[in-house]
């Protein structure tokens, strides 16, 4: 389907406030506009946190992408001290449903379809009210999608906590999941976040199609299971899965023109810098931050570190690191900055990640394995040190090391035990200096080519998007809306 055949379509896209959802939904809006001429209105759920406003760049697809920030939702009366971040996210999306409804009602023309991020499945009921087809954007792996839609079956089959299971959790046609790698939501079946996750798994399959941010070059086996494995097909009911990835932000030509950082990167040799960053909200403990600093120093490799003041306790899983305080001198080893000034660069709190990863000097990425960060690394051909912290990141780390072969990882999960400086030094050297690291870099380069090939006309991800749009077009013609 080319631009001319769907340039009358208009879709509504809905995102949670989390960076890991906002970025891919905006990338989807851009892709719909630029490759298919489709107009979209992006509804952003907001909480009023200051960091949210930094996430949205002006839309590039002139005139075809409209961004509406919904009024902030207030869940303060609904949460207690133990309410998990993920539960809060589900609550915010629930509270936002009336706002979504009002925003659509106020539009000058009824949209032809709605696409919501997977945390927002409760807004799918609004689609029925406006007679629109409804789709879910799953911003993570097909493997995590498979686990999410199959979890209601596991819930029936398995008694007790998943984490106590002696064997792996089996998903039809897919790589089994080690219980300790299962998503945070499954770690405690008595917690509200598990009940919300189960509900989401049941709601996802009620839509007209699931767009997953992956592709055959990355996850051939799982994607095949969605179309060929009878047990998996029966779980999906009638919801087809459309692999449309990799959906990543493009590199902004002006993104790193902030001077010092760009100049520093330009002065480094090609592929010799390790980029260290733990996503939009990953914060290490004080002890782990110290060990990481020592490990980087001992490795004698060049590094660029997006560094955040540590939180008390072992690991923080806040999506919004707005309330962290302190300067580097407060939490880095004494003298670290002086001793590493010729090989290291620190960026406080937030870096232009896609631009940094695309710079020729970057040769490795120590990452929390958020799926957006992972894809950004792959489309830059950069191998990783997998350092999972929360959500589905342990699965992503297993996938990167065991399936794709583009990452090394600590022997014990960093959420279980502080990773010591010697192990960090060894991982960094392996990735940046050894032939094993070079082999991973080569594999990452191959994946970059095969994954991004699918995005152009005639590629598999482009074809998936065309199929979704022709379905929407057909439903429009047949009077569904
Ligand atoms: N990001 C960034 N700069 C930072 C930290 C994060 O640009 O300093 C972006 C990153 O490029 C990615 C998103 O924030 O697009 C984080 O999404 P991801 O799925 O990797 O992890 P999450 O933060 O949702 O756990």
How would you describe what is shown here?
It is built from 19 helices and 15 strands. The model is unreliable at 313-324 (pLDDT under 50). It is globular and about 70 Å long. 41% of the residues lie in helices and 14% in strands. It is α/β, with parallel strands linked by helices and 481 residues long. It has two domains: 3-245 and 455-477, Glycogen Phosphorylase B (Rossmann fold, 3-Layer(aba) Sandwich), CATH 3.40.50; 258-451, 3-Layer(aba) Sandwich (Rossmann fold), CATH 3.40.50.2000. The strands form three sheets. The protein has a seven-stranded parallel beta sheet with strand order 3-2-1-4-5-6-7, with helices on both faces. A six-stranded parallel beta sheet has the order 12-10-8-13-14-15, with helices on both faces. The structure holds uridine-5'-diphosphate. Uridine-5'-diphosphate (UDP) binds next to α2, α14 and α15. Uridine-5'-diphosphate is lined by residues 18-20, 23, 277, 279-281, 306, 350-351, 353-354, 370-373, 376.
Q: Kindly state the number of beta strands.
A: 15
**Text of the CATH class of the largest domain:** Alpha Beta
- Hetero ligands: uridine-5'-diphosphate
Shape verdict: globular
Please work out how many helical segments DSSP would assign.
19
Classified in CATH, the superfamily of the largest domain is Glycogen Phosphorylase B
| Percentage of β-strand residues | 5-15%
Spatial strand order of the main sheet: 3-2-1-4-5-6-7
| Sheet with the most strands, sense and barrel status | 7 strands, parallel
């Amino acid at each position: 389907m080319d631009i001319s055949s769907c340039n009358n379509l208009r879709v509504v896209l809905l995102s949670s406030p989390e960076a890991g959802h906002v970025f891919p939904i905006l990338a989807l809006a851009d892709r719909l506009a630029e490759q298919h001429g489709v107009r979209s209105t992006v509804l952003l759920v907001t909480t009023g946190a200051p960091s949210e406003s930094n996430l949205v760049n002006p839309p590039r697809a002139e005139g075809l992408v409209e961004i509406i920030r919904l009024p902030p939702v207030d869940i303060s009366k609904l949460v207690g001290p133990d309410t998990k971040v993920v539960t809060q996210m589900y609550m915010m999306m629930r509270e936002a449903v009336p706002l979504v409804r009002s925003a659509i009602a106020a539009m000058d023309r009824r949209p032809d379809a709605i696409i919501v991020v997977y945390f927002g499945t409760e807004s799918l009921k609004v689609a029925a009210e406006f007679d629109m087809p409804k789709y879910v954007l799953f911003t993570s792996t097909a493997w995590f999608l498979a686990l999410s839609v199959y979890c209601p079956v596991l819930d029936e089959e398995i008694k007790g906590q998943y984490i106590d299971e002696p064997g792996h959790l089996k998903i039809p046609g897919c790589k089994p999941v080690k219980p300790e790698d299962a998503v945070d939501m499954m770690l405690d079946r008595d917690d509200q976040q598990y009940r919300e996750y189960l509900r989401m798994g049941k709601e996802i399959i009620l839509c007209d199609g699931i767009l997953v941010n992956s592709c055959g070059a990355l996850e051939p086996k799982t994607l095949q299971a969605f179309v060929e494995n009878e047990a998996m097909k029966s779980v999906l009911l009638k919801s087809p899965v459309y692999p449309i990835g990799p959906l990543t932000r493009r590199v902004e030509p002006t993104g790193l023109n902030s001077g010092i950082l760009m100049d520093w990167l330009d002065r480094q040799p090609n592929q010799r810098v390790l980029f260290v960053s733990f996503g939009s909200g990953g914060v290490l403990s004080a002890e782990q931050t110290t060990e990481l600093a020592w490990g980087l120093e001992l490795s004698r490799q060049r590094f660029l570190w997006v560094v955040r003041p540590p939180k008390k306790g072992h690991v923080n899983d806040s999506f919004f690191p707005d309330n962290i305080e302190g300067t580097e001198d407060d939490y880095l080893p004494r003298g670290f900055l002086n001793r590493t000034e010729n090989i290291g660069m620190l960026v406080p709190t937030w870096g232009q990640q896609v631009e940094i990863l695309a710079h020729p000097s970057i040769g490795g990425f120590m990452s929390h394995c958020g799926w957006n960060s992972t894809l950004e690394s792959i489309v830059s051909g950069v191998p990783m040190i997998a350092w999972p912290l929360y959500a589905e990141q342990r699965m992503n780390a297993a996938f990167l090391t065991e399936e794709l072969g583009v990452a090394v990882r600590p022997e014990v999960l960093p959420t279980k035990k502080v990773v010591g400086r010697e192990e960090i030094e060894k991982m960094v050297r392996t990735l940046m200096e050894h032939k094993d690291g070079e082999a991973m870099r080569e594999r990452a380069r191959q994946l970059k080519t095969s994954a991004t090939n699918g995005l152009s006309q005639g590629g598999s991800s482009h074809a998936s998007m065309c199929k979704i749009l022709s379905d929407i077009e057909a439903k429009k013609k047949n009077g569904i809306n």
